[in-house]
C-alpha cells in the first residue's frame, strides 16, 4: 500500500513540474505576441473620479456677524484686557513693573507678572453672563503679546471658569486706532 502511494506521489510531482513548465512557456509566448501587437496607450485610472469631494460654501460676512454676537475678549498692545470695547483689567496699572520688562516668551519674571494680570482678568471675565451662557469666548491678542501669554490666559479661563471653547480671532486694526 505504501509502495502505491509513493509511486502516485512521484507521478503527481513529475506531472506538476511538467505542467508548470508548459504553463510558463505558454505565458511567455502570450507576452511576446502581446508585445508585437500595436496598442493605444492605456489612460491612467483616475482614482479620485469615484471619490466625492464636498467643498463647503463659506461666507466670511456670516462668520463675522456670528463673531460679533459672541463675547470678544481683546488684549491690546497696551496690555489692557477688554470685553468687546470695554476695558476690564489694565495689566500695567495692576503690575507696573511689567511695562519695563521685555515681552519675550523666555522672560520668566514678565510671564509671572502677566499671569497675575491674566488671573485677575479671568476672575472678572469668567463670571460674565454672556460668556457663561455658551461656555465660549472669542479671544484676540495684539501681535506684540507672546503666544505663551495668550495661551496661559486661555488655560486659566478654561481651568477656573469652565470655558470649554476659546476661539482665536483676528484683530482688525488700522494704525493709530484702538484694538
Fold and architecture overview:
The chain has 179 residues and is of the alpha/beta class. The protein has 2 domains: 2-45; 60-168, Nucleotidyltransferase, domain 5, CATH 3.30.420. Helices cover 49% and strands 13% of the residues. It contains 6 helices and 5 strands. The chain has helices spanning 2-36, 60-69, 91-94, 108-125, 129-134, 147-161; strands at residues 72-75, 80-83, 86-90, 136-141, 165-168. A 5-stranded mixed sheet has the order 3-2-1-4-5. Strand 2 and strand 3 form a beta hairpin. Helix 4 (108-125) runs parallel beside helix 6. The longest helix has 35 residues, at 2-36. The radius of gyration is 36 Å and the shape is elongated. Mean pLDDT is 77; it is low at 174-179.
Search tags:
49% helix; disordered C terminus; 6 helices; alpha/beta; Nucleotidyltransferase, domain 5; 179 residues
Spans of at least 5 consecutive residues whose pLDDT stays below 50 are 174-179
Q: Which structural class do the helices and strands define?
A: alpha/beta
Strands, total number: 5
Task: Tell me the helix content.
Answer: 40-55%
Integer tally of domains: 2
As laid out across the biggest beta sheet, the strand order is 3-2-1-4-5
Question: Strand fraction band?
Answer: 5-15%
Total DSSP helices: 6
> What is the terminal-to-terminal distance?
100 Å
Radius of gyration: 36 Å
What is the CATH T-level topology of the largest domain?
Nucleotidyltransferase, domain 5
What would the average pLDDT be, to the nearest integer?
Answer: 77
Order of helices and strands: HHEEEHHHEHE
User: How does CATH name the architecture of the largest domain?
Assistant: 2-Layer Sandwich
CATH class of the largest domain: Alpha Beta
Largest sheet: 5 strands, mixed
Amino acid at each position: 500500500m505504501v509502495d502505491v502511494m509513493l509511486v502516485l506521489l512521484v507521478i503527481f510531482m513529475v506531472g506538476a513540474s511538467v505542467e508548470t513548465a508548459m504553463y510558463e512557456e505558454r505565458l511567455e509566448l502570450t507576452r511576446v505576441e502581446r508585445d508585437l501587437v500595436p496598442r493605444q496607450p492605456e489612460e491612467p485610472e483616475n482614482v479620485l473620479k469615484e471619490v466625492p469631494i464636498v467643498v463647503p460654501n463659506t461666507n466670511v460676512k456670516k462668520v463675522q456677524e456670528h463673531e460679533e454676537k459672541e463675547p470678544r475678549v481683546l488684549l491690546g498692545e497696551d496690555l489692557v484686557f477688554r470685553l468687546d470695547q470695554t476695558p476690564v483689567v489694565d495689566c500695567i496699572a495692576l503690575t507696573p513693573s511689567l511695562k519695563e520688562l521685555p515681552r519675550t516668551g523666555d522672560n520668566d519674571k514678565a510671564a509671572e507678572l502677566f499671569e497675575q494680570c491674566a488671573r485677575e482678568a479671568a476672575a472678572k471675565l469668567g463670571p460674565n453672563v454672556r460668556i457663561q451662557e455658551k461656555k465660549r469666548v472669542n479671544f484676540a491678542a495684539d501681535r506684540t503679546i507672546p503666544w505663551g501669554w495668550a495661551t496661559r490666559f486661555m488655560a486659566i479661563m478654561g481651568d477656573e471658569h469652565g470655558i470649554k471653547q476659546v476661539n482665536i480671532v483676528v484683530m482688525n486694526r488700522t494704525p493709530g486706532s484702538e484694538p
